[in-house]
Specification:
The complex is a heterotrimer of chains A (103), B (631) and C (166).
Chain A lengths: L4 H21 L3 H25 L6 H31 L13
Helix pairs in contact in A: 1-2, 2-3
Chain B lengths: L5 H13 L4 H6 L1 H22 L8 E10 L2 E9 L1 H24 L6 H20 L3 H19 L6 H32 L4 H5 L5 H18 L8 H4 L5 H10 L3 H9 L1 H7 L1 H21 L5 H21 L3 H29 L10 H4 L1 H15 L5 H15 L3 H27 L12 H16 L4 H8 L8 H23 L4 H10 L4 H5 L3 H8 L3 H63 L6 H23 L1
Antiparallel strand pairs in B: 1-2
Helix pairs in contact in B: 1-3, 1-5, 3-4, 3-5, 4-5, 4-11, 4-16, 4-21, 5-6, 6-7, 7-9, 9-12, 9-13, 9-14, 11-16, 12-15, 12-16, 14-15, 14-20, 15-16, 15-19, 15-20, 16-18, 16-19, 16-21, 18-20, 18-21, 19-20, 19-23, 20-23, 26-27
Chain C lengths: L3 H23 L3 H21 L3 H25 L15 H21 L13 H8 L4 H21 L6
The chains are: A mainly alpha (103), B mainly alpha (631), C mainly alpha (166).
Amino acid sequence: MTVGLPHVLTLAALLFGIGLYGALSRKNAVHVMMSLELMANAVNLNLVGFSRFVTPEAMTGQFFAVFSMVVSAAEIGLGLALVIAIYRRKRSVELDAVQELKG
Amino acid sequence: MDWVTLIPLLPALAFVVLAPLSRAARAKLVPLAVAAVLGSLGLSIAAFLAVWPGGHGEVWQASVTIAHIGDRAITLGLALEPMSAIMLTVVTVVGACVQVYSLGYMHREDRIGWYYAVLSLFTAAMLALVLSDNFLGLFMAWEVMGLCSYLLIGFWHEQEAPRLASIKAFLTTKVGDLGFMLALAVVYAEAGAFDFATVLHHDWTAGTATLVALLMLFAAMGKSAQFPLHVWLPDAMAGPTPASALIHAATMVAAGVFLVVRAFPIFEASGIALTITLWVGLITALLAGLLAMVQHDIKKVLAYSTISQLGFMFIALGAGSSTAALYHLVTHAYFKSLLFLGAGVIIHAAHTQDMRQMGGLAKKLPVTSLAFASGSLALAGIVPFSGFWSKDEILAVLLHEHQYVAFAIALLAAFVTAFYVARLWFRVFTAPTQQEDLHEGHRSMLVPMVVLAVITAVIGFFGPTLGDFLGHEIPWPALGTAAISTVAALGGITLGWYVYGRRTSVVNTQALKQRFPHAYGVLANKYYFDLTYGYFVVGGYTTLARALATFDARVVDGVVNGVAAAWRSLSAAGWTFDGRIVDGAVNGAASAVRAAGDKVRTLQTGSVRSYQTLIAGAVVLLVVWILVKGA
Amino acid sequence: MSTTLPAVAFYLLAFAALYGAISMMSTRNVVHATVWLLEVMLATAGLYLVLDAEFLALVQVLVYAGAVAVLTLFTVMLTLRRREDAVRPFPTAWGSLAIAALFTGAMLLAIRGFCPVGVEMPAIAPGIEEFGRELFTTWMVPFEVASLVLLVALVGAVWWTGGDDR
């Protein structure tokens, strides 16, 4: 029983798919944010996998993962701040409550 | 000598500072504009002294290259030589007088700051025009002046008349400017440059010279309000009176004459162009003089008088003496601006521009009446006031050139001039007082007038000096022509006095009544001025003048209106085309876009979830496409 | 034997992560979903360990498990007025499911196509010391920029959620 790159990538793809489904189907803004985090997580897993199997010396993927984490941490911080701001105005965190862009 | 650049630059800077400010801030900075023009005045006098004693051409020149066309450089430059030095002093003296005067005249205006800004820009443009060492720079300054003229005529744009007058003035002068542009094109094609030195020393063939000269003459006729392009100047009197004094009497309208003076070698090379110039001047001088006799609006009298005097300058040019034209330009600038400033005080005092409602102002406005007398005598051509000398010089040139017909017409025009001056003077100053509440103008208005009056009174004695300065001879008047012109002037004044002056005393009025009993009722009804025309000497005159006015209204205006009507019907046809086809196409395209928009609009649900779905769907499709492509 | 343990650990952790993710999607309670997310994050941290990325595993625990999950919980609590609001209806989103499935399928196909099964894990795996040295030499500038990004995000979050008085 060995672990190869395809296994890691497959796992990441599955996690990403689940996250994508959640991001698309959920109406609760917090839930959507969590799904986005799941997707980001899958991406990081991919990066680490590539790093381990393709460039184990340079660890490039790992560094990318570090910065990716930084960005997604910033994203969830701002995203949740936005959810709070929307909640203040709309008294709701339902995405359907935000319709200002309607053409 | 590079400080000469500052002469036009100072007023230009005043404009740059004033123009972008708010109305209130501009009004506070008005002294800045006055200071700028006074600075220019000082520098101009210094420049004049630097050129003194003259006759030796250019003393300073500077230029910058503004563009390259192919391997040819287009330069703009300034040059100081005797002619521009004289013009500098004229423009800055009159400009400074007008700006100081306006402090009193315009002080109640909200937009006095804007008025001063435009006045400064105008002064800068006029100074650049006289200093310019090439036709291109001259043309640019010329156009800026046209813009300033438009802005100042339409200064009271809340009212209908100034607005229409400003448009009329702008369009009419633009017709002339078309000639200037074409002339520039021909000049460049022929001489390959714009600067005076190259262009004027170019070896002009008679045909090309005639073409250029006639095009430039056309431009000058528009700017200097010569027949038949004179129609805008009387209407331009709707602007503020001091602006009229500066722009529509002293300087800008003289720019046309100045252009011809500058391009004079081309006119001489043509020959026929000089003859045409002469006749344009003769027709204008006489017709405008006759029209001035039947006006009741004091500013319109002065406006027609200006046209007539500009005609005299064209006569001088046509007779081949640019020096005489320039001389008359200088003297006219002083005395006509003086008359306009005086008219401003009168209008302020009498609260009307109609001379029939004035009268007896001499006692109430002593300073103004004296200054106005100086200007009037100069305009009429009475020794020793300035107009006499320069007008006499023009007549002498005509005699010298054996232009006897032209001489007779010019003499008649001088006679007419003296007559309408007398009519103006007696009606305004010595006729019975019709208003009691009259007061003299403010000191800031009187001082400039006194300055100009003194200049008008004495400048004639410097004619020969001026001639030396320019390197041409201006002789002292010969006794013969001086006598003839004085007789003409005195005759006109006497006639004017006979018609308008005598009735101030009871006896004269009685005599009039006895001699013309059927006019008595009308005399009692205050309408006798017009009927005096009809019954007294000038019956024919009136008819002629009326006919001329009618001609003016029917034929000249008719042509203009005809062109306008033709244009209008053309535009109507164009409009129909526009409405049917162009609009149809545009509207069709618009409704197609709108229909498409209505469809696409539904995509903009405003729902974040549908957006994510769209984006994700698109990404998925992209991925699938890449896979299919890659496999 | 040396490769067996990581392989077993990998499959266990992978199962945990997938199970957590599916549970997160299938629960109707937002609070429960947050806890399932936390579980997925911890499983991922374990996977990083298996893949010899110790530093990342630590960061994963600190940032995601420690900060993000707690932040999310706070948000959920702040925006819930009633306890029963935590329970969301569970919509059947066939469209979303189709898109996600399509995407995942495409990805799996791609992985199969480009990356043959059975690539061995390279033996060499630098430790956390080399990682630190690299991070503060080669990746110095991006690291500083990342700190700036976090600062901006911090200020932005404070600004957006600031009081009503602004």
